[in-house]
C-alpha cells in the first residue's frame, strides 16, 4: 500500500513554510509522495484577487523541484466549477493508495463549514499541522470535538512555528521590501518576471 499526502492551497506564492510542512509530514507519516494541489476556483477565495492559476502552478513546480517525492497536480486548476476537497480526494483515491490530506490548524477550526466532510474522513486520513495564532489547548479541544462528532481520528503534527505567510510576502513585495529569506529564488524569479503583487 502506497501512502500519498495531498496539500492543497492557493500557493500565491509558495514559500519555505509550505516546503517545511510537506517535508515534515512526509518524514513523520512515512509518505511515499507529497502532491501539491494549487486551488483552481476555491469557494472561500472567490472574493479575493488570486494570481493566474498557470503562474501559481509554475511557482509550485519550481519551488518543489529540489525535493525528492514532491509533485504538483493541476487537477483542481483544470477542473470546471468550484474546487471542493472531498471531490479532489475522491478523484485521487485508488485501491493501492492510502491518502493523507494535510492542512493547517485554521482549517480544523472552520472544518464544519466545509462541504461533505464525512466523505473527506471516509477517503483520507485527516492531518492537521500547528500554526501560529492557535494554542495547543484550543486545537486539542476542537480535534476531540470533531473526532467524537464524526467518529474519526485526526493526526496532529506539532511543527515549529515558521511564521511566513503568502499574504505577508505579497504585501512586502508591494512595499518594495526584501523577501529572499521567505521563498526559493526560482519562485522569486517568476514573481519578478510576471511583475506579481505590485
Tell me about this structure:
- This protein has 198 residues and is α/β, with parallel strands linked by helices.
- The chain has a single domain, classed as HUPs (Rossmann fold, 3-Layer(aba) Sandwich).
- It contains nine helices and six strands.
- The protein has helices at residues 16-29, 53-64, 75-78, 85-92, 105-109, 117-123, 136-150, 166-174, 185-194; strands spanning 2-9, 33-38, 70-72, 97-104, 125-129, 154-157.
- α7 (136-150) links the parallel β5 (125-129) and β6 (154-157).
- α2 (53-64) packs antiparallel against α9 (185-194) and α4 (85-92) runs parallel beside α6 (117-123).
- The longest helix is centred in the last third of the chain and has 15 residues, at 136-150.
- The model has no long low-confidence stretch (mean pLDDT 93).
- It catalyses: nicotinate beta-D-ribonucleotide + ATP + H(+) = deamido-NAD(+) + diphosphate.
- Catalyzes the reversible adenylation of nicotinate mononucleotide (NaMN) to nicotinic acid adenine dinucleotide (NaAD).
Supply the number of helical segments.
9
Q: Which consecutive residue ranges, at least 5 long each, have pLDDT under 50?
A: none
User: Can you tell me the CATH superfamily?
Assistant: HUPs
How large is the share of residues in beta strands?
Answer: 15-25%
What sort of overall outline do the alpha carbons produce when their principal axes are compared? globular
How many domain modules? 1
Computed over alpha carbons, the radius of gyration is 17 Å
Please report the distance between the alpha carbons of the first and last residues.
Answer: 46 Å
Biggest sheet architecture: 6 strands, parallel
Q: What is the fold named in CATH at topology level? A: Rossmann fold
Structural class: alpha/beta
The count of strands amounts to 6
Identify the CATH architecture. Answer: 3-Layer(aba) Sandwich
Mean pLDDT: 93
Order of helices and strands: EHEHEHHEHHEHEHH
Under the CATH scheme, which class? Alpha Beta
Q: Portion of residues in helices?
A: 40-55%
Strand arrangement across the biggest beta sheet: 3-2-1-4-5-6
Amino acid at each position: 500500500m502506497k501512502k500519498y499526502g495531498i496539500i492543497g492551497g492557493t500557493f500565491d506564492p509558495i514559500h519555505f513554510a509550505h516546503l517545511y510542512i510537506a517535508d515534515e509530514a512526509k518524514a513523520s507519516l512515512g509518505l511515499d509522495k507529497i502532491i501539491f494541489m494549487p486551488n483552481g476556483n476555491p469557494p472561500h477565495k472567490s472574493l479575493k484577487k488570486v494570481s493566474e492559476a498557470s503562474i501559481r502552478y509554475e511557482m509550485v513546480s519550481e519551488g518543489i523541484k529540489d525535493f525528492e517525492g514532491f509533485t504538483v497536480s493541476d487537477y483542481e486548476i483544470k477542473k470546471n466549477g468550484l474546487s471542493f476537497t472531498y471531490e479532489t480526494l475522491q478523484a485521487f483515491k485508488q485501491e493501492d493508495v492510502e491518502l493523507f490530506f494535510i492542512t493547517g490548524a485554521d482549517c480544523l477550526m472552520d472544518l464544519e463549514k466545509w462541504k461533505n466532510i464525512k466523505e473527506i474522513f471516509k477517503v483520507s486520513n485527516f492531518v492537521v499541522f500547528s500554526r501560529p495564532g492557535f494554542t495547543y489547548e484550543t486545537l486539542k479541544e476542537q480535534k476531540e470535538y470533531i473526532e467524537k462528532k464524526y467518529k474519526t481520528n485526526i493526526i496532529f503534527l506539532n511543527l515549529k512555528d515558521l511564521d511566513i505567510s503568502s499574504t505577508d510576502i505579497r504585501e512586502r513585495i508591494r512595499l518594495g521590501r526584501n523577501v529572499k529569506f521567505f521563498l526559493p529564488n526560482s519562485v522569486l524569479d517568476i514573481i519578478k518576471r510576471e511583475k506579481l503583487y505590485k
